[in-house]
Write a structure and sequence with these properties.
Elements (H helix, E strand, L loop, with lengths): L5 E5 L3 H13 L3 E5 L2 H10 L4 E5 L7 H11 L4 E6 L5 H8 L4 E4 L4 H11 L5 E4 L3 H13 L4 E4 L2 H10 L4 E5 L7 H11 L4 E6 L4 H9 L4 E4 L4 H13 L5
Parallel strand pairs: 1-2, 1-3, 3-4, 4-5, 6-7, 6-8, 8-9, 9-10
Length: 244
């Protein structure tokens, strides 16, 4: 089977591993299982995987430590973490270093299968800001964190780019000439309900922000913000079952 369908499940609980593997195999994925972080690293050294789904809390190497070592072996690897705990410092560190998303236990298999499908897709983050320097600086920060990202400078181009290729997450300035963020968002959602949209603004009033979130915008960040905060917002949006 092609590498793009090969998934590694890492969990010290045998029952959880077997359940995840069985459900993913039913969806047509080739699945390998690892009982802990050390076993996962051994498998990653032996063969290539498109995606790793790993528990965070395991004996020996935890999920974030395992993620770091796996990325040294296969830098292009996509990793989803599983946890039964609220977003903690350890998990935030993993996200800031390029973890695709965090799925919280207990979760439905339907949610997991949707997330796997998205994680193995193009995964592009589209940054839209009418100030090119701002857009490019955000893209540079996202790429440094291990995310695939590109910039466009107006709403019309954003809509065209989303139509031409799959856009996973759109980071959208709300105040732009010609087509503002709310109108751009509405057109993006008509193209695909799967696109997560995160707003950003340094000027929009509360009425515009509320209009954006009422229509389904995931969240809105106030400029200036740290790239780390945006990376966390992207991972949370990807992880949210209500946004799938």
């Amino acid at each position: 089977m092609e590498t793009t369908r090969r998934v590694l499940v890492v969990d010290d609980e045998e029952g959880m591993r077997a359940t995840l593997a069985a459900n993913l195999e039913l969806e047509g994925y080739e699945v390998a299982e690892a009982r802990d972080g050390a076993h996962a690293l051994e498998l990653v050294r032996q063969q290539r995987f498109a995606l790793v789904i790993s528990d965070v809390r395991m004996p020996g190497l935890n999920g974030v430590e395992t993620f770091r070592e796996m990325k040294r072996i296969q830098p292009e690897l996509t990793v989803v973490l599983m946890t039964a705990f609220a977003l903690e410092q350890l998990v935030e560190e993993g996200i800031s270093e390029g973890v695709y998303a965090v799925i919280h236990k207990p979760f439905s298999m339907e949610h997991l299968v949707r997330m796997v499908g998205r994680a193995l897709g193009p995964r592009a983050v589209l940054v839209v800001d009418d100030l090119p320097d701002v857009a490019e600086a955000i893209v540079a920060g996202l790429r440094e964190a291990g995310l695939r990202a590109e910039a466009v400078y107006d709403g019309h181009t954003a809509i065209r780019r989303a139509r031409e290729e799959a856009v996973d997450v759109c980071v959208l300035d709300l105040v732009m000439p010609s087509l503002d963020g709310v109108k751009t968002y509405e057109q993006l959602r008509r193209l695909s309900s799967e696109i997560r949209v995160i707003g950003m603004t340094g000027h929009a009033g509360s009425e515009m922000i509320h209009a954006f979130t009422r229509r389904g915008g995931y969240t809105c960040l106030r400029k200036p913000f740290e790239v780390r905060d945006l990376v966390l917002a992207i991972a949370r949006a990807r992880s949210d079952p209500g946004a799938c």
